[in-house]
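Message: Study each token:
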Amino acid sequence: MSMQVGIMRMMSQSATLLFEIGCEEMPAAFMRGALAQLRTLLAQALQESRLPFGTIATYGTPRRLIALVSEVATHQTPEERTVRGPAKRACFDAEGKPTPALLGFARSQGVDPNQVQFLETPQGEYAFVQKRDEGQPATVVLAERLPALIRQMSFPKTLRWGTHQLRFGRPIRWIVAMLGNTVIEFEIDGIPSGRYSRGHRFQAPQPFEVRSPEGFLQQLRAAHVMADPEERKAFIREEAIRLAREIDAQPLLSDDLLEENTFLVEYPHLLRGAFPETFLQLPAPVLISAMQKHERFFPLVNAEGKLLPGFISVYNNGNPDNVREGNEWVLVARFNDARFFFEEDLKQPLTAFVQGLERMLFQQKLGTLLHKTVRLQRLAERLAHALDWDQPTRECLQRAAQLCKADLATQMVMEFPDLQGIIGEEYALRSGEPPCIARAIAEHYQPRYAGDKLPQTPVGRALAVLDRIDTLVGYVGLGYLPKGSSDPFGLRRAATGVVEILAEEPDYPTLAELVQAAHDEYRAQNVSLKPLTALQPELRTLFYSRIEALLEEQAIRYDLTRATLGGGWDDSVYGFVQRARLLQTQSAEPALQTLCLTATRPANILAAARKKNIHAIASLNRVDPTLFEHEVETRLYQMLQSLTPQIEALYYKHDYERIYALLQQLNEPVNQLFDHVLVMTENEALRRNRLNLLACAQRLYLALADFTQVVES
């Protein structure tokens, strides 16, 4: 009894859990994912271990991953469970004595055979034992779960170090594991847990004893470690702004660069540096790229956004004057390289670099970048014709298609790959190309990432679509369709770009037409891809998933999205988006509910007919009015004769609101036909005629959507 009281007392107690994994400097890109994993895996381990807890907070620097969990039970919650044993018939012999099966079951469960119960189940009567697991102290349980958690963690790249077999993001140097003031003792691959942590590598390198989990963050701060990444980020932002304001400047604080600097230091220090003004003669994007991408510095601009000869850098340790001198020296060296590349590139016009694309592989089986350029030129010609553009705009698109990849062969882009397109625009202007061509060269890479702005000029938008369509058809045609979370060639991103642009373009060819055109150009170059009949469905699935994502961002109801994608007479992205928006605006109106109910009736009966291998033809030419037996058939037929040409004309003008209004006129004749006519009559001629009539009605409904997908309000 006293033991149970003791256990109950322990169960009512809780303490704070501290878990710190100390390691060599982790790449900044690993950190957010690692902290998210730590939180998820720790919550899972505690729940599965029957250890109630409060909240989990994670912290991290390049040298450590930390979890602090409040109110963790110091003992497992007791558990009642029922264990099933052998069937009753196997438990006793002919004399009614316990068999070895029963004795062995009782022994394995630690009970006397007399304590075994027999209960009826659907399979017959079986032996059962009721067991109560009082649980273990949390320190004992976590001594097993925490090492397993470490082994579960994954990283983009892992290392194995020394003679250790454990793989981790970076070599582990120490582990702190404490529940309250008690150490959770374990060892993983020769690395023991304990209560000793370490401070800043240079300013407080000696190990220190953790006094308590609750005071750990303060101890770290005293050891020159700011453990909270959000605090570090806010400090970097505020200090960068303060230093810039001292010279009436503003720092360019991109989210990505802030995040990276946050996880490059344990305690951030900031300084302001400068570089010679002569470098401002270089294009601003070149200087910004060198500062941001290569040196992780924040460029400075004035109130008008003009680049200034200065920067803000974040550093972890050292004399600020020495750090500033080193930063400036490295940056000037980088700028000198950029100036050399820039001057060398400008010795010839941009068009001279086109031929260099012949030596640059696009994809082994798809040819070089020059092959891609030729395809883009031909696709540009076809698209300009389809859009009925005037001659100057056609020539602009043709020239932009020829030059859009040329800067990839320049020394500048080879050194600064993120400047592709941007340098192309700069070189095009300096080569005397018209602004429409130069702008299109830069814009055709947009959107570069989620949330990036779309191309603004017609030529830039056209080239952006064609470039991505060519890539998608080529790679998917070779069998590289994205699967699961794997998308090494960025095909989902390319499809998203196409969808986002086409969502605003009512006059563009359909997705199927664009895919066919690109497939034709690959065939013209004797590139072997999947047949178009196999390629179209795969790309349609990819594009439709991107359209779904786009409509979800626009808060379109999921069932309305599915209904829209299930309808339409073609796969115009603009059409899908406009029809989905229309249904969303009408979703609360009774008229849509009535339309859905009515449209579902012909859809259901036509689906049932197909299951019987009866396929209706949605053409009024295949409906014979002389076979009508009821007035309602004539009325529906006449209504369809009136509505069909109107809806066909409106469909290709994207006037879906008018189509929606016209479809309301079908409600009464369709419902009356079902109320007064037996469609699936045994007379084959009458049945086929009536099904064809309903198929014509269903075709008009599908101009807007597959209304069977709409969920009733």
Summary: DSSP finds 25 helices and 18 strands in the chain. The chain has five domains: 2-76+137-222, 79-133, 229-345, 352-553, 581-709.
